[in-house]
């Protein structure tokens, strides 16, 4: 059977082709309710399926949202990506997803591809400044997309373009370290020196600042990758350290408390410490950062900073879908945006590039089994 055309629907409903298009392709110029219902009924009866390209032209939007994360295996990114997907799908839009493995060249290629697919917005989750010459290329790409009506939303490190939800990493890590000290911990190991990941540096910096204020020096400083495998390496280096210096240097039979600046690393360390036969929290205590759901199910349950991941994702989608005359729930007033369908050196009529803005969020300290100290006699 030949494919059902829009003209067939228009003829069956007794309306013009333009009217049928406005109803079925999502134009803002929708006719009256009775006419719209007649067109929709004809489309259902004939089995007509709207053309996506025609819908994009009618709406001046593609209904596509580009989502960029570092590593979908990491439960931090997986939690946010799932919430973004659910919120976007509920709005009748779709997500085009890519991961970058924290490689800036991969990220730039991915962004170019998403923009070529005429996405309406880009949502970038994680640190997206790598401290090298390619940062300028990334900035230029995002600025050009925004100039042409696309929306840019970041979650993590400030992008300098569009809107960004920024966790107060240093302050939260400082609060976590303080809580551990108040709880009785005096021996600490920290993960630092993760190149190109400012958020991790901020977290470790805030943690060490609290130790310094309490007159405590980290017993051990380790450089490993911000991944589950990095957590395995972290546990192995902890084992080597304990074997080389088994005595408690503070003379209080306290465990060594390890701070990993990401839950995925802390969870990897927990698993490897168990495999190595090291008691957690008896010999080694472990704290993470992020508040991923997996931390609740770990054995022992993981002490962490719980960021409002679901709320952050919902706010990002609210910004993406915000109409030109709507205000933001927690951020500045919205400005007009739309699909970036024009050439890089021209701005579509009526578009307006947003002034870069940030909204800061705080996490909650969750002290759990992984840092519990044995009760003293």
TrEMBL record:
<feature type="domain" description="HTH lacI-type">
    <location>
        <begin position="4"/>
        <end position="59"/>
    </location>
</feature>
<dbReference type="Pfam" id="PF00356">
    <property type="entry name" value="LacI"/>
</dbReference>
<keyword id="KW-0804">Transcription</keyword>
<dbReference type="InterPro" id="IPR046335">
    <property type="entry name" value="LacI/GalR-like_sensor"/>
</dbReference>
<dbReference type="InterPro" id="IPR028082">
    <property type="entry name" value="Peripla_BP_I"/>
</dbReference>
<keyword id="KW-0805">Transcription regulation</keyword>
<dbReference type="InterPro" id="IPR010982">
    <property type="entry name" value="Lambda_DNA-bd_dom_sf"/>
</dbReference>
<dbReference type="InterPro" id="IPR000843">
    <property type="entry name" value="HTH_LacI"/>
</dbReference>
<dbReference type="Pfam" id="PF13377">
    <property type="entry name" value="Peripla_BP_3"/>
</dbReference>
<protein>
    <submittedName>
        <fullName>LacI family transcriptional regulator</fullName>
    </submittedName>
</protein>
<feature type="region of interest" description="Disordered">
    <location>
        <begin position="325"/>
        <end position="364"/>
    </location>
</feature>
<keyword id="KW-0238">DNA-binding</keyword>
């Amino acid at each position: 059977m030949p494919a059902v055309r829009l003209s067939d629907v228009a003829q069956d409903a007794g309306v013009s082709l333009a009217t049928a298009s406005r109803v079925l392709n999502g134009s803002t110029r929708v006719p009256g309710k009775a006419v719209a219902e007649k067109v929709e009924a004809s489309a259902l009866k004939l089995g007509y399926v709207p053309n996506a390209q025609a819908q994009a032209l009618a709406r001046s939007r593609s209904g596509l949202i580009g989502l960029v994360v570092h590593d979908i295996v990491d439960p931090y990114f997986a939690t946010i990506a799932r919430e973004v997907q659910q919120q976007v799908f509920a709005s009748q839009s779709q997500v085009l997803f890519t991961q970058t493995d924290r490689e800036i060249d991969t990220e730039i290629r991915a962004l170019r591809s998403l923009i070529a697919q005429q996405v309406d917005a880009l949502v970038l989750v994680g640190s997206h400044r790598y401290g090298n010459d390619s940062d300028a290329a990334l900035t230029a790409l995002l600025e050009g997309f925004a100039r042409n009506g696309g929306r840019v939303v970041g979650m993590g490190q400030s992008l300098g373009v569009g809107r960004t939800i920024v966790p107060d990493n240093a302050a939260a890590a400082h609060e976590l370290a303080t809580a551990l000290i108040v709880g009785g911990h005096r021996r600490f190991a920290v993960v630092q020196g993760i190149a190109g990941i400012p958020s991790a540096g901020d977290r470790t910096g805030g943690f060490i600042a609290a130790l310094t204020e309490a007159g405590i020096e980290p017993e051990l400083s380790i450089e490993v990758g911000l991944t589950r495998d990095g957590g395995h390496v972290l546990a192995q280096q902890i084992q080597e350290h304990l074997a080389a210096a088994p005595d408690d240097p503070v003379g209080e039979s306290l465990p060594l408390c390890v701070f990993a600046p990401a839950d995925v690393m802390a969870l990897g360390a927990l698993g490897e410490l168990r495999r190595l036969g090291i008691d957690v929290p008896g010999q080694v205590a472990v704290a993470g950062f992020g508040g991923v759901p997996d931390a609740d199910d770990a054995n022992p349950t993981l002490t962490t900073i719980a960021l409002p991941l679901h709320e952050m994702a919902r706010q990002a989608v609210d910004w993406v879908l915000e109409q030109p005359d709507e205000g933001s729930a927690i951020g500045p007033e919205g400005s007009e945006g739309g699909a970036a369908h024009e050439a890089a050196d021209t701005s579509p009529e009526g578009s307006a590039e947003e002034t870069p803005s940030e909204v800061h969020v705080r996490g909650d300290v969750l002290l759990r089994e992984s840092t519990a100290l044995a009760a003293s006699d």
